[in-house]
Amino acid sequence: MPACVRVLGIDPGFGAVGYGVVEMRSSRIDLVSYGAIRTEPQEPIPDRLLKIHDRLEELLLEFRPDESAVEELFFFRNVTTAIQVSEARGVILLAMRRHEVPIFEYTPHQVKLAVTGYGRAEKGQVQRTLKTFFRMEVNPRPDDAADALAVAWCHLTSRKFPGGVRKA
After folding, report:
1. What Pfam family is a match, any one (predicted)?
2. What pLDDT is attached to residue 168?
3. What pLDDT does residue 121 have?
């Protein structure tokens, strides 16, 4: 394993795409940056997708991750929402691929299990655990960004055990 591994975690969305950048050196995982890419509901869908793509490109150039971890989609009751999030996820995966960043995918259950030890943990429990892990003064916010940090944490802790990692 390299001396330092930088991971870009992504929580796919359409109105907000969470991102979290973390680094592992030896056995220590440090927070580098986190936030959310936001789009406006009144914007045309192609413009929203372009905004997600362009901002993700900026993040890839700024942070130069070695690997990426993307949360898999879960079941949506609203078909329109599922389609929009799937379109955004496609843009995200394309950007990662174009920058030749290896993509690893995790289910929400896997992420919660890796962070809290319980696969059905509540968002608040995940955020409080991340706050402790990253030695933060407050819980990471917004929720999308916290979810992205959790995905990145899941990947870095899972990569020690290759059988637990799934590559896209």
Report:
1. RuvC
2. 47
3. 96
Q: Catalytic site residue 147?
A: no
The answer to whether the pTM exceeds 0.85 is yes
* 144 marked among binding-site residues: yes
Domain positions in the chain: 4-164
Q: d(Cα 128, Cα 64) in Å, to the nearest integer? A: 28
Per-residue pLDDT tens digits for 114-128: 999 999 999 999 999
d(CA 84, CA 91): 11
Tell me whether residue 11 is one of the annotated catalytic residues: yes
How far, in Å, are 9, 56, 119 from residue 130 at the CA level?
13, 23, 15
Q: Which long-range contacts (CB under 8 A, 24 or more apart) does 129-136 make?
A: 133/29, 134/22, 134/29, 134/30, 134/31, 136/31
137 has a pLDDT exceeding 70: yes
Give the span between the Cα atoms of 4 and 124, in whole angstroms. Answer: 29
Of 23, 67, 144, 147, which one is the catalytic site residue? 144
User: Does the pLDDT at position 130 exceed 80?
Assistant: yes
